[in-house]
Amino acid sequence: NLVESGGDWVQPGGSLRLSCGAFGFSFVNRIMCWVRQAPGKEREAVSCISTRGASTKYADSVKGRFTTSRDNEKNMAYLQMNSLKPEDTGTYYCAASRWFELRLDRYDAWGQGTQVTVSS
Q1: pLDDT at residue 80 above 90?
Q2: Mean of the pLDDT values across residues 61-70?
Q3: Measured between alpha carbons, how far apart are the two ends of the chain, in Å?
Q4: What is the pLDDT of residue 25?
Q5: 36 pLDDT more than 90
Q6: Which residues of 55-83 are buried (b: 16+ CB within 10 A; e: fewer)?
Q7: What are the two backbone dihedrals, phi and then psi, of residue 87, each rounded to the nearest 5 degrees?
Q8: 36 Cβ partners below 8 Å, 6+ apart?
């Protein structure tokens, strides 16, 4: 199971930190990714982090603004979002994978999502 938290309303240019807690599986052996879905749009994979945290990858839409990290001692993954834009609005999900790819079909465990709203 995966449980996200940290979603909120924020003004453009602001920051948020999302958290994802993992339960019931070997967290340290799974690549952790973040996915978002804007209203009326398809889900988009935005970041992944390798099992030990040594490697990350990001969608072009968030590169340079978002940073993903993880704490394997706490079974937690994070997404630090800076310089937020209205187009970042959406539901954010964390997902576990055995593949280090920004591909939704590679993810086999999902959280319930947390809502991020960026508006003035």
Answers
A1: yes
A2: 98
A3: 34
A4: 87
A5: yes
A6: eebbbeebeeebbbebeeeebbbbbebee
A7: -75, -5
A8: 43, 44, 46, 88, 90, 91, 92, 93, 116
